[in-house]
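User: I've been trying to design a sequence by hand for this structure and keep getting stuck. Would you show me what you'd pick, starting by listing the structure so we're on the same page?

Assistant: Good idea, let's start from the same input. This is the structure you sent:
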């Protein structure tokens, strides 16, 4: 549900099953979202002990440099007593004309507004954010608004992550 009464992704799904998203996307963030009715499945993908990677593409206001990227890899404090880091941070492109940077960042945690707060901690505003990957799931050929069902093999693969 949304505190402002806006439509959520669950409102768009026609089913009688009780489904919920694995993790969250901010209202202004796009990208990969997994929906399930299986709490164990969701827990494996969300719980920090499983160290599941989530990959985001962020468009930043400003031209980011190596020093800020290294800080993101080393760890930044996003709120008092909460330090997080990017397991991988790659500058993909800069556009001096529009004064923007495109950065791919991989995280293992899933704190509220984490990616935006991380970039803010090193002096950059995220103007666009897209989640591209969760574990081995990616957007492949899906366009915005499209979906597909998971295969039994993919579901089994998620449960095998629990044993690692």
């Amino acid at each position: 549900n949304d505190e402002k009464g806006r439509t959520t992704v669950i409102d768009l799904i026609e089913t009688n099953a009780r489904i919920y998203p694995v993790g969250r996307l901010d209202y202004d963030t796009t990208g990969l979202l997994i929906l399930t009715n299986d709490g164990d499945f969701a827990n494996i993908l969300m719980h920090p002990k499983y160290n599941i990677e989530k990959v985001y593409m962020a468009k930043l206001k400003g031209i980011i440099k190596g020093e800020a990227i290294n800080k993101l890899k080393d760890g930044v404090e996003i709120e008092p007593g909460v330090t997080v880091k990017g397991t991988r941070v790659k500058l993909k492109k800069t556009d001096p004309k529009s004064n923007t940077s495109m950065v791919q960042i991989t995280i293992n945690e899933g704190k509220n507004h984490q990616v935006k707060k991380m970039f803010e901690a090193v002096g950059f505003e995220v103007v666009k954010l897209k989640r591209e990957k969760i574990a081995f799931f990616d957007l492949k050929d899906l366009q915005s608004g499209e979906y597909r069902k998971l295969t039994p093999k993919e579901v089994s693969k998620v449960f095998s992550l629990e044993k690692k």
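That's my pick for every position. To get oriented when you compare it with your attempt: The mean pLDDT is 93. The chain has four helices and ten strands.
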